[in-house]
Amino acid sequence: MAAEVWQGMSPQERRLLPHLDDDPATVASVLGLGRHQTQAVMDALSEKLRLVLASDRGNPRDMVAALLRRGSDPP
Question: What is the pTM of this model?
Answer without folding.
Answer: 0.80
